[in-house]
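USER: If only I could read backbone structure tokens as easily as an amino acid sequence. It would mean a lot if you studied the pair and described how this chain folds. Here is the record:
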Amino acid sequence: PSGAAGQAAAAPPAAIAAPAARADAPAPPAEARRARAPRPISTTGVDALGNVAGQAQVRPGALVVEGGINQGEVQRVVRAATPRMRACYTSQLASNPSVRGHMDVHVVVDALGEVKLAEARTSPSIELKGCVQGVFQSLRFPAPGTGTAQFTASFDFVSSGSAVAEGSEITDPNANIPKSAPYDGRFKIVMDRLQNGDKDGGLDEAKRWQTDQPGDIMALVALGEAYEARGDVKTAARAYGSILELFSFRADSRRFAGERLERLADPVAIKLAADTYGKAAEQRPDHPASHRLYAFTLLKAGEHEKAFEAMKKGAMRSYPPGRFRGVDRILKEDLGLIASVWASAAPARRAEIMTKLHAAGGTEETGPSLRFVLVWETDANDVDFHIHDGKGGHAYYGTPNLPSGGSLYADVTTGYGPECFTIRGAREKRAYPYTLQAHYYSRGPMGYGMGKLEVIDHDGQGHISFEERPFVVMKDRAYVDLGSVEKPKATVTASLMK
């Protein structure tokens, strides 16, 4: 990189290998099989009186398509039926609160798209089995055209603690949160060593990996993680900056490098992140994540008007129908957040700024809000966002609203995001702590997922704080911990990087 990039990124290794697979490559054939990665089923949360909470949750497992039908179409129809399966489970819990477990449903679809057979081969109870089979038998799929199609869909049925009475406490509000096992291969070796406090061992393994495979993006990420763990921010920035040298032709890799650089909270790294986000927006203006990341990084640098214009460009353009669900709402609210911060920094221009906001179709943000925004840099895959609150509530695509407050706007199943969960209202009324996870529901052709969770806390008066949490997930069906939000944070403000 040149300019700011040259200050943060060292020269890349001499031997540069081409990436193994493009992030925008087509999805693998529908016939591809996936093995189910089992995960533990925990007991429900219990309140102070010993009452078992009973909110029904249906968690997706593997979807194995045996041929004759597109996997994405099957996924779309099955997802739409999730509320009906949850209703089956809710009814079962009313008579037997202890029911929970795993179910595999084998489905045969005839040439017209009608369900010929729906058989639950495993089930927590006979009654739940019959109800779920009835749901599947009523579904209609795209016609295979010739012959029949078959698939097997797996689910875990668990009950959470969010139905606990107001004012009561539960012993473990996170009892139902699946354990994470997101890493594999040499990256897992490095991260395990770092987690166990072996910083030298983690760095040694990352260096060997980078020497053995100088063109491997994950080797550079491991190297950056190891230097971060040692507190060597400058060298970590050089490792992440090398990703830009190797993969500058790919907007997704540009964004991922920027997300890593942004976490360093170093002024030079922030400038480099803004530069690469801006180039990503030029390369792929049809990716809304590029506009968001670029605009908010400019906001952190105190460039309010440039941030507004960058977000406005993203908010006012159109995107492929159905490609990024909920993005119009997200970007227009983002534009409102930036306008609020800008107006607070330049009160004499408030009327002018709000006029610009309304002209761009933006949404005024005049009340407190806490937003969790998830993006991932892998196309043709599905990463699900899961939010658990301190009362045992759980929100995800199947149950987008928390009883304690807050909503998931939409479910993006085709790559990149953003997915946004927003909690509105006074801070003292929020159900802290919030525990956040990403679920690698459907792995794309790249084989690993990489992205970022951004936590945005706005006081409603133009004062805003950010927290950046980049992540990597490598195992299909794995959950990756994105940490918890214990209380409002004010560690990085929009004007800190001036």
Notes: Residues 327-345 form the longest helix (19 residues). The radius of gyration is 23 Å. Confidence is low (pLDDT under 50) at residues 1-54, 161-171, 490-498.
